[in-house]
């Protein structure tokens, strides 16, 4: 570059946006048991959670974090309990639909990270399976971790499961061509 001369081209700045989502579901009452859906997986033999949908707090927190990152409301805005079509809906379906809405709004998804709090089920052995299912639904990497709350609070008493998620999205703007890139001919 000639000394003192400013560059002639600039790059489009792509500013990522972060979002957060929290979801909590109580265990279904003993006289109306439900299957457990958690992290996009069915957990055979585990007590299930109550909800209008399948009650998967991991998938719901992930979807909420996506909406939060884009500034387009929350789970209730898009999948309210007043919508009969979402009664019993799988968390994986809701996450896939959230990702579709986000992309239709002009964003691409960087990643989603979720952590849930529960005494059980023991998540580690199925982490990769869960991450595969949720990443496939979102079309972007979803990581999932688990912790107990050391027997404290409602999760510690086994009354429900909570999950918190963060998401990173960025505007799906085509990048400006590099000034040094060869020009297409013809
Ligand atoms: N439902 C759960 C909860 C925890 N884990 C794993 O155990 C580790 C230790 O948890 P603490 O709450 O005792 O710190 C945690 O880091 C997870 O790896 C799990 O698999 N399933
Ligand atoms: C997912 C929806 C809709 O079926 O219902 P729930 O399964 O009750 O889940 P919640 O996270 O409490 O709220 C969001 C609702 O829009």
UniProtKB/TrEMBL annotation:
Domain 2-C-methyl-D-erythritol 2,4-cyclodiphosphate synthase span(s) in chain numbering: 17-169
Organism (species): Arthrobacter oryzae
Protein name: 2-C-methyl-D-erythritol 2,4-cyclodiphosphate synthase
GO molecular function: 2-C-methyl-D-erythritol 2,4-cyclodiphosphate synthase activity; metal ion binding
Entry binding sites for a divalent metal cation: 23, 25, 60
Pathway: Isoprenoid biosynthesis; isopentenyl diphosphate biosynthesis via DXP pathway; isopentenyl diphosphate from 1-deoxy-D-xylulose 5-phosphate: step 4/6
EC number: 4.6.1.12
Catalysis performed (reactions): 4-CDP-2-C-methyl-D-erythritol 2-phosphate = 2-C-methyl-D-erythritol 2,4-cyclic diphosphate + CMP
Description of how the protein assembles with itself and partners: Homotrimer.
Swiss-Prot/TrEMBL keywords: Isoprene biosynthesis, Lyase, Metal-binding
Annotated PANTHER family: 2-C-METHYL-D-ERYTHRITOL 2,4-CYCLODIPHOSPHATE SYNTHASE, CHLOROPLASTIC (PTHR43181)
Site, as annotated: Transition state stabilizer: 52, 148
Cofactor(s), names only, from the UniProt record: a divalent metal cation
InterPro entries in the cross-refs: MECDP_synthase, MECDP_synthase_CS, MECDP_synthase_sf
Keyword Oxidoreductase: no
Cited function: Involved in the biosynthesis of isopentenyl diphosphate (IPP) and dimethylallyl diphosphate (DMAPP), two major building blocks of isoprenoid compounds. Catalyzes the conversion of 4-diphosphocytidyl-2-C-methyl-D-erythritol 2-phosphate (CDP-ME2P) to 2-C-methyl-D-erythritol 2,4-cyclodiphosphate (ME-CPP) with a corresponding release of cytidine 5-monophosphate (CMP).
Family of this protein: Belongs to the IspF family.
Top-level taxon: Bacteria
Any Pfam family matching the protein: YgbB
Signal peptide: none
Cofactor note: Binds 1 divalent metal cation per subunit.
Gene Ontology biological process terms in this record: isopentenyl diphosphate biosynthetic process, methylerythritol 4-phosphate pathway; terpenoid biosynthetic process
């Amino acid at each position: 570059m000639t000394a003192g001369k400013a560059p002639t081209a600039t790059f489009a700045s792509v500013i990522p946006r972060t979002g957060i989502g929290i979801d909590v579901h109580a265990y279904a009452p003993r006289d109306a048991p439900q299957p457990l859906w958690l992290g996009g997986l069915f957990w055979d033999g585990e007590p299930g959670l109550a909800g209008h949908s399948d009650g998967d707090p991991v998938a719901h927190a992930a979807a909420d974090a996506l909406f939060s990152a884009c500034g387009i409301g929350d789970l209730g805005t898009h999948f309210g309990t007043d919508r009969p079509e979402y009664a019993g809906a799988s968390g994986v379906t809701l996450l896939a639909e959230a990702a579709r809405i986000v992309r239709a709004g002009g964003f691409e998804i960087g990643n989603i990270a979720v952590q849930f709090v529960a005494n059980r089920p023991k998540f580690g052995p199925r982490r990769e399976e869960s991450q595969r299912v949720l990443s496939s639904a979102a079309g972007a990497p979803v990581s999932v971790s688990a912790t107990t709350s050391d027997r404290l609070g409602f999760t510690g008493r086994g009354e429900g499961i909570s999950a918190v998620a963060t998401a990173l999205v960025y505007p799906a703007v085509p990048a400006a061509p590099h000034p040094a890139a060869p020009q297409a001919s013809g």
